[in-house]
Amino acid sequence: MQPRQTQRQDPERPLGLRFVVDAINAPNPSSSWSALTEAHGDPLLGELATQQEHVHAAVHALRSIFEIQDPGQAAAKLNQLLAECSTQPELAELPDGRWALRPSLTGTSTAATTLTRVGAFALATWLSERGRCAWGLCEATGCDRAFIDEGRRAAQRFCSTTCATRTRVALHRKSGAVADAGDTTATE
Predict the structure, then answer these.
(1) I need a labelling partner for 29 at 20 to 30 A (CA). Which of 36, 44, 79, 175 fits?
(2) Whether residue 182 has pLDDT greater than 70
(3) How much is the average pLDDT of 13-20?
């Protein structure tokens, strides 16, 4: 599966949230590392060393945060990751002249370290902006893709409209089959 192209790209650094989601959802993030960094605006990061077991561990650590829905638990886990990877924020000027607070990638020598720094910082920032765990893993049967909840109303439960529709149709068919079975026994 190819990483999803995003609308907004920052040529200075990978987009934190979308970069992390695409890395977590990639079938083999260590082998697609170069394509992920290219798609998210920083092809130079694609040249970093990618040891499969370390990248897998970073993906696992970040994915475990997507399972957490309690803000206190998420904050504790994110603070632990931020401390482990010594993430220091820095102000960076974007190509359009705006300023953004980003994790420092100075001294980053591996894909796993970079992914952990960018991921933990992006998720911590998202939690602080939203005030809730605005993320999750898809609830559709047979899908466990990570997603970022950008909605303003009810919490998002699915990674895409495709999964949401498939789940609704299956539920409708199931309720229709139950209703049909109920009608048959009621007439006997």
Answers:
(1) 79
(2) no
(3) 77
Within a domain: 10: no
178 domain residue, yes or no: no
Residue 66, domain CATH: 1.10.3300.10
User: Quick one: pLDDT band at residue 11, thresholds 50, 70, 90?
Assistant: very low
pLDDT of residue 13: 46
- Tracing tokens 């109303």 back to the chain, one arrives at 153
Say if residues 41 and 13 touch (Cβ distance below 8 Å). yes
Specify if 181 maps to a domain.
no
Reading the block at residue 48, the tokens are 């970093």
Is residue 119 situated within a structural domain?
Answer: yes
Mean pLDDT of 156-170: 90
pTM over 0.85: no
Q: Are 150 and 134 in contact (CB under 8 A)?
A: yes
Q: How many domains does the chain have?
A: 1
Is 149:131 a contact under the CB 8 Å cutoff? no
